[in-house]
């Protein structure tokens, strides 16, 4: 029967048919149905890896709300699983079986069935089962779907033969890519997108008797077999069975080379024949078919030779394998030619459809089939935050991306993909990688050389997994710490942001791009152009966000001075790509009002490309063109005409490509605009060496998470620590002291690394390898006792260290007002009060932005802004115990209260708790002499200005800052804070004498 054959009303179910007989008529020798879930409460709602049902989704709004609900019309028992949903990205629910118990064996049954309460919305519902591996989150996914085109309860029957292997979901390469059914770990349901709805489900069970003739499958070792002209492709054909039992009956595979773009007899020697696997053949047995390409003298694009397989006695492969004769002899393939000529040659050969494909970027998990890469000539794939292979290892990443690159070889010109990820503080999607402090901490180091080293470590670890493109760095200038992305910024001063752009050379190498082809460099992305850090609180219209993706209201002068200036520096440093902001820009007085940045041709074409001379390509943000007012065709037309070259359309890659082609053919987008976009994209692909080496070079994989790389992260963590207060010299700690450690963030690697770590939002707990602050203190040799909530007795200790702050978040989810504020939690406040009331105490705030300590500051002896230090808690311990000096300086102003926000260096009214640039030091002798010393330092600074002796100028300002800061430590007032903060800005802009003069002004005002 059809797998969606039965529609029954509640009355029919309860009054006419026994439930056991509902559905297809059971065979006489069919085994009794085996329940999987009855939803009567026997299975809890839980998180993996515990046995239970759990929802999931692409953001906080997308997971469905689940419940076990009593229903009088329940097909089985009294309760059913119910839920409501309104999904914009993706969402659904899963039942994972307990990993601590043996997996289930479903191999005796024909299929799986369940009751579904239809809403008649005509939407497809994906149903997946989990096969093999260590547990439900490390198993192969096999998928099918049904259409909700009915009303009321209907039993959905799905034979196991209907399931296909999900090529977009790993374990990479599959455990065996055979639906064995002997080790099943659960199932998952993916709910429809774009419709607000509800669902009900009941009685998931196994049914029927396994049909032995359908338990065998024939597969090939690949779907694509590139071969050079004159070479021979070896296509390995295997037979496999569920449960790995020998086949019962013979399986024959007739093969024939037929169709495709290659010409039989001219381009290749045709093949035709038959392979027989006799009864009793072991599962996994293989045979090889060879296909030989012929040599000719003409230059040609790639040509395909489909190998048609006709299978008897088993299930045929899901795809027809293709042998591809590599493109050869064409100028764009010649690595000795200049990149400009190679690009021009290739663009001249491409069709509009191929060009549109190059301008399209899809999320790897959204591919309906890997064959879509060649079918739609896709130019790029990405992994969004948390979109990772399973297992999440370096080898798995490389294998996954290589499988995607192989598919691109089946396209006419074999243009390699450019794969991108958000590696914003190390290769942060990869478990075991080196996680750097977030940018706010890097800004606190005031160390451009260290920023470059951090970029170099990130690039090396990213490229070693086969990824050539990083959506970093963020060059936003954060102007309001209520913004959930403020930790992605180097600071509130554009001069500080510009000074940290050495990270671009760490990522890309030389400004001319000559190093991009190296195995430890990646293409970098300056984001988010322009003004994302200046959005007005309350201006966001995205979901429950309050400030992220809102409106930046500025004068033309403010735009140039604050938000645009870092981008000219990035262009001068050779940045390869730029990503516009989700936010809108409202330039006061220009008459346009707020306009989405993805639609601002005046800024993208006019300023970025024309005025600044940016010659890389512009990539949109995640589905950002959907926020442009108008219909979809208008969104595509407006964004491309505004200067976007590649569009990130995670789930709409087919619609985007089709719409783009239609808009060009209608004359609403010029062919020259498309050619410009494709030229820019291909230029970077050639610079990256992808045409010569499309596959992962994993020779550097051994350095991922290595001691050498972690040493850089440890140094960055140490230098990012900002000592705000140090009454009585309580820091550094001595190893002889008995130290009482408390607080929510003392021993939590997830909280310490923050958002954009392993997953988009990050999460608390041991999510990756690293050293917590507590572990670092113990490894430093400290005599440490730990009580997270400070419930342990506090007597007998010399000093307390309380590590408090935020839990992870990313983007607008972390906006203040969206369930967040800048206050410590009640538990953290209680820990601070108890410890600081019992002994001398040090408080560390682990957070992406300043935390309001308020009146507690008086009872705190030492206060440290630890930011989000990454995986290397040893670096924090280094400064706590005096192995390194505290040298960090505030990259943002530390407010007294939330009502002061926004508050920034340069404001006319400026009364912070701690000013921008503040940062006490240890292990360094502070200059004496007061005004007389300042006078001498002013003369040195003036000489440095005249002679261009920047090193001497910086040294003079640094000494003056230490002298002044020591005097101001207990008397920060508006009169002292403003010139102090201004001095740091002047230092960063190279005006040393003016900086010393401002510091002297602060000194005299104290």
UniProtKB/TrEMBL annotation:
Keyword Thylakoid assigned: no
**By what name is this protein known?**
beta-glucosidase
UniProt GO molecular function? beta-glucosidase activity; cellulase activity
Q: Which reaction does it catalyse?
A: Hydrolysis of terminal, non-reducing beta-D-glucosyl residues with release of beta-D-glucose
Per the UniProt entry, the signal peptide is: 1-24
- Of which family is this protein a member? Belongs to the glycosyl hydrolase 3 family.
A GO CC term assigned to this protein in UniProt: membrane
- What is this enzyme's class at the first EC digit? hydrolase
Database matches in SMART domains = Calx_beta
Q: What is its EC number?
A: 3.2.1.21
**Biological process GO annotation list?**
cell communication; cellulose catabolic process
Per UniProt, the keywords (alphabetical) are: Calcium, Glycosidase, Hydrolase, Repeat, Signal
Instruction: Give the Calx-beta domain ranges.
Output: 205-310
Q: Which InterPro entries match?
A: CalX-like_sf, Calx_beta, CBM11, Cellulose_Degrad_GH3, Galactose-bd-like_sf, GH, Glyco_hydro_3_AS, Glyco_hydro_3_C
Q: What is the lineage of its organism?
A: Bacteria, Bacillati, Actinomycetota, Actinomycetes, Kitasatosporales
Please report the organism this UniProt entry assigns to the protein: Streptomyces albiflavescens
